[in-house]
Amino acid sequence: MSFEKDNTFVKGRLKSIVFAVKGAFKLATTEHSVMVQLSIGLLLIIAGFYFKITKEEWLIQTLATGLVLGIEGLNTAVEKIADFIHPDYHKKIGFIKDIAAGAVFFAALTAILIGSIIYIPYLF
């Protein structure tokens, strides 16, 4: 099977969108950490409607959720590539995977902080 580049702008962009949606679906249906993060995102959407958060709070909450999911997607890609290249344990591969997981950790901490700033005043 050979790869044929699509030279038309619109058709090429539509194909890119299809690939992106497929990738998002694969992430959401195969990766447990993404499933958990999507569930938390859904709970935050419900909480946002319940507490009637402001437009600005919606924007920041959406950005934080997207940040975590995006970084988690990149982390998953790094892990899959590393496992493909070197299926057995290797110290350097482990180091690379730890760094990618650390990026998710920073994004998640940021999202928790943002969620706390938004929701603690509504709770107390």
UniProtKB/TrEMBL annotation:
**Sorted UniProt keywords:** ATP-binding, Cell membrane, Kinase, Lipid biosynthesis, Lipid metabolism, Magnesium, Membrane, Metal-binding, Nucleotide-binding, Phospholipid biosynthesis, Phospholipid metabolism, Transferase, Transmembrane, Transmembrane helix
What membrane topology is given? Multi-pass membrane protein
| Location relative to the cell | Cell membrane
Q: What GO annotations for molecular function exist for this entry?
A: ATP binding; kinase activity; metal ion binding
Which residues are listed for substrate binding in this entry? 72
Q: Any binding details for the cofactor?
A: Mn(2+), Zn(2+), Cd(2+) and Co(2+) support activity to lesser extents.
Membrane-crossing ranges are: 34-51, 99-122
> Has UniProt tagged this entry with the keyword Metal-binding?
yes
The record's active-site residues are 72
Q: Which GO terms describe its cellular component?
A: plasma membrane
Cofactor dependence is on: Mg(2+)
A Pfam family annotated for this UniProt entry: DAGK_prokar
| Record's keyword annotation contains Nucleotide-binding | yes
Annotated binding of ATP, by residue: 31, 79, 97-98
Binding-site list for a divalent metal cation: 31, 79
Per the UniProt entry, what are the Gene Ontology biological process annotations, in alphabetical order?
phospholipid biosynthetic process
| Family as reported in the entry's similarity comment | Belongs to the bacterial diacylglycerol kinase family.
| Protein name, entry field | Diacylglycerol kinase family protein
Recall the taxonomic lineage recorded for the source organism: Bacteria, Pseudomonadati, Bacteroidota, Flavobacteriia, Flavobacteriales
